[in-house]
Amino acid sequence: MLRDDLLDLLKRAGKATDADFDIGETGLFLAALDLQDADFGYYRDHLHTVAADLRLASRGVKNLRDRLRAIRDVLYRFHSYSGDRETYDDPKNANLMQVIDRRKGLPVALGVLVIHCARSRGWAVSGVNFPGHFLLRFTFEGESVLVDPFEKLQRWDMDDLAASLARISGGKPEPQAQHIHSVADREVLLRLQNNIKTRALSAQDSDRAIDVLETMRLIAPGQFELIEELTMLELEDDRVSAATGRLEAYLEGDLPDPGPAKALLRQIRNMLN
Question: What is the full DSSP assignment across 99-119?
Fold first, then answer.
């Protein structure tokens, strides 16, 4: 698929409501930007296949435990997906097409596939932006559970959350409500892309980081934080005209709060004078 076509499709996804946002298809669009010679139809067919397999595996499910077991049987057993422990930081683990090829990936990449499957059956599932480790929340008839897509939908309780936070912080913080709030599907894909961006920055590849941030902007055009990060990266690379031009173009849009963008543009201009 041609790059311009993919960019147009991502722009459409960025304009879609949360209810109409297709996480699996949009994840493939993002992946295809790096693999434009790949057979897009093959990967789209795979998404249809796992959804069809879940339809068969979920006959007769009665409760939340049955739903989780059906997804586990389809994705992790029949299709052999798993978390990649050996090469966790490999960028392929965050490209949905390569995750499908290799049948392994990061928690958030596997989470995208789980969400796609569950949504194909109309089941309630959402991403959870837990610090350091992406989780999923499944709900059904008043029951809610947190599960780990990296560990074949293993359930997490408060002790698991606290232990994970302790590993990140080195202390013993108590899990707070903001640690386990649900996020929209586009936020899940932003987290997926953020993994790629972070690895690019670690490799001091600012061009790659800027390119990834641009794709993030396409699916979340209203998020000023992405514009701000792009602007700062361009300023660090002495791309002053690109940075100011980006902010000026952003301010021409219909913004709910143009104040932060105006303040940043004013700050840059003051630096130049």
Answer: HHHHTEE-HHHHHHHHHHHHH
